[in-house]
Amino acid sequence: GGTIGIIGGGQLGRMLALAAAPLGYRVHVFDPHERPCAADVAADFTSAAFDDVAALERFAASCDVVTYEFENLPVGPLATIADKLRPGTASLAIAQDRCAEKAFVEEAGGRPAKWRAIDGPEDIAAAVEALGLPLVLKTRRDGYDGKGQAWLRTEADIAGAWDTLGQRPLVAEQAIRFDAEFSVVVARGADGALAFFDSTRNVHVDGILHRCELPAGDLIEKQVGEARRQAGAIAERLGHVGVLTVEFFACADGPLVNEIAPRVHNSGHWTIEGAATSQFAQHIRAITGLPLGSTALRSQEVTMDNLIGDEIHRWPELAADRQAALHLYGKGAARRGRKMGHVTRLG
Ligand code: ATP
Ligand code: MG
Ligand code: MG
């Protein structure tokens, strides 16, 4: 038993809280919003800003261990509760800055797309010169679900891009012609043990994950071994404790790293029904110092479909489908592009 603190009150925090209960833990959620969806399933909830150091310290004092479900958090304030924090601030600092992330991946022996840091509008033309077109510009910080990205396809797209993306530090990435996308969801225990989940084929539409599928197909299966080596090296180099996700592009010449998430991940939601231990239970085990659970498959065939925006209105039909495991996040307004729930099918 004991109390686990979760910073961030979104659906990942909610599913972590639900997974903590069977292991006997209470959960205390910390989030700036009034009533985030994770607070509904937690014993305690603090509504305060992420940089409110006094509130963070009180929160940490009420918990045995603190984790986060969201990486766009201010590192300085979190450093004040570093003794309770798993994973630590190193994982956070690297994953929240796309340039630091890519440099770190390279040091760890991974291969990102060719990239350039963009600190001003004049750097964009230089990046086009160096990387060629098409390329994608991404805000260095704070992006998720494809937000804060702009594609440059022709020279004419260069001029407006700096303003369109809010005059913020960016990274330019070469466009990758990948054959498929997959991710490695790995847990690293407090003792350094690694446990890998199977890698699904991940299908994105407009930068948002729509579907995960197992079997993932020959190409991904051939590249998973190398991708696991890279993800394991990244987790070790970060001293990461908990679940870590590395997104990959499967290319003709091997896997390229897209990005790192220092947390449970949408592409691991299928593990709730599809694996012996879910990614959420695994994360709770890792951060509390329990042995990692089995990642064995419960079915060779798994699909996970996100319910995005209006798709949530399909819920009555999905609730009646006896092959479907329906998850609704209780998030309120079904805004466009918002992840409202998901549905998993086995076999
Ligand atoms: P997430 O919600 O996964 O954190 P994000 O906003 O950080 O999303 P990315 O993962 O960088 O966005 O990009 C979203 C998707 O856009 C990728 O999964 C991929 O389909 C496409 N994409 C991103 N970068 C590139 C690239 N360099 N070349 C080709 N496609 C790309
Ligand atoms: Mg991302
Ligand atoms: Mg991504």
Helical content band: 25-40%
Structural class: alpha+beta
Give the overall pLDDT as a whole number. Answer: 97
CATH topological fold name of the largest domain: D-amino Acid Aminotransferase, Chain A, domain 1
> End-to-end span in angstroms?
35 Å
Strand residue percentage: 25-35%
Bound small-molecule species: adenosine-5'-triphosphate, magnesium ion
Report the CATH architecture of the largest domain.
2-Layer Sandwich
Number of domains: 3
Shape: globular
CATH class of the largest domain: Alpha Beta
Explained architecture:
The chain has 347 residues and is α+β, with helices and mostly antiparallel strands. It has 3 domains: 2-85, Rossmann fold (3-Layer(aba) Sandwich); 114-174, ATP-grasp fold, A domain (Dna Ligase, domain 1); 180-346, ATP-grasp fold, B domain (D-amino Acid Aminotransferase, Chain A, domain 1, 2-Layer Sandwich). It has 11 helices and 17 strands. The protein has helices at residues 11-20, 53-61, 75-79, 89-95, 98-107, 121-131, 158-164, 218-238, 271-274, 279-287, 315-320, and strands at 2-7, 25-31, 44-47, 65-68, 115-118, 135-139, 149-152, 170-174, 180-188, 194-196, 201-205, 208-214, 242-251, 254-261, 302-308, 324-328, 339-346. The strands form 3 sheets. Strands 9, 10, 11, 12, 13, 14, 15, 16 and 17 form a 9-stranded antiparallel β-sheet that branches. Strand 11 (201-205) and strand 12 (208-214) form a beta hairpin. Helix 1 crosses helix 10 and helix 6 packs across helix 7. The chain starts with a strand and ends with a strand. The model has no long low-confidence stretch (mean pLDDT 97). Adenosine-5'-triphosphate binds at residues 113, 136, 138, 143-147, 173, 175-176, 181, 204, 207, 247, 258-259.
